[in-house]
Amino acid sequence: AQTVTQSQPEMSVQEAETVTLSCTYDTSESDYYLFWYKQPPSRQMILVIRQEAYKQQNATENRFSVNFQKAAKSFSLKISDSQLGDAAMYFCAYIKAAGNKLTFGGGTRVLVKP
Amino acid sequence: GAGVSQSPSNKVTEKGKDVELRCDPISGHTALYWYRQRLGQGLEFLIYFQGNSAPDKSGLPSDRFSAERTGESVSTLTIQRTQQEDSAVYLCASTPQWIQETQYFGPGTRLLVL
Fold first, then answer.
1. How far apart are CA A101 and CA A94, in angstroms?
2. Peptide bond before B61: cis, by omega within 30 degrees of 0?
3. Facing residue for A98 by CB, picked from B33, B100, B110
């Protein structure tokens, strides 16, 4: 069974600084997708970034970028120039290609200090 | 267009009562998913619909839980004889056929069983 592990329950970052969130996963599949979702207090799960396993190039979305290490089964998220609005829970998630269920990690709470 | 919507936003019920939670997916999205999020945890998969059929019900925790979907639109998750351990946020997501692996979430229903 696939598992996703986020080892950092909470991370704190100063406004305008950079923070990196860790995620590791376990799978026997070769074709899959990885995601980072943001969940603010409103509960809405917001898609931050998506990575296809067959792509070697790391995905980026504005201030958000990932470091995807397929062999190590690692998928970290870097938030650059942190803003107060980035404060939220961040979840790493995995789905196999043509799969129908996301497997989520336990989440990392990000606190942004002004 | 509009995103995934869920109702009610919050529901308080007494132990032993039945509850119905509703999800309206994004128009045109063929696949629909239900997840449960217990306090401070990641999301757990409950059930997946493709159209109005449910090929994967593997996450439903007991026979007190059931779900149905009308065509490619509204879905209802029903919990019978609610228990205190059913207290959680129930999130719905939908996916367009052409981006099968990317799920877009609604704001969830927070259920509290007293």
1. 8
2. no
3. B100
Q: What are phi and psi of B98, to 5 degrees?
A: -85, -5
Chain B residues in contact with A25 by the CB 8 A cut-off are: none
Instruction: State which residues of chain A have pLDDT below 70.
Output: 1
Convert the pLDDT of each residue in B31-82 to its tens digit: 999 999 999 888 999 999 988 888 889 999 999 999 999 877 899 999 999 9
Query: Of the candidates B48, B101, B107, which has its C-beta nearest A43's C-beta?
Result: B107
- Asked if B80 and B86 touch (Cβ cutoff 8 Å), the reply is no
Compute the residue count for chain A: 114
Q: Is the pLDDT at B1 greater than 60, yes or no? A: no
Amino acid identity at A63:
R
Phi-psi region of A73 (alpha: psi -120 to 50; beta: other; left: phi over 0): left
Q: How many CA atoms lie within 13 A of A37 on its CB side?
A: 25
Shortest Cα distance, chain B CAs vs residue A34, angstroms: 9
Task: Identify all chain A residues contacting B105, using CB atoms and an 8 Å cutoff.
Answer: 37, 44-46
- B98 close to A (CB below 8 A): no
Q: What percentage of chain A carries pLDDT values higher than 70?
A: 99
Indicate the DSSP class of residue A60: E
Asked if A97's CB is within 8 angstroms of B101's CB, the reply is yes
Touching check for B34 and chain A: CB below 8 Å?
no
Contact A107, B43 (CB under 8 A): no
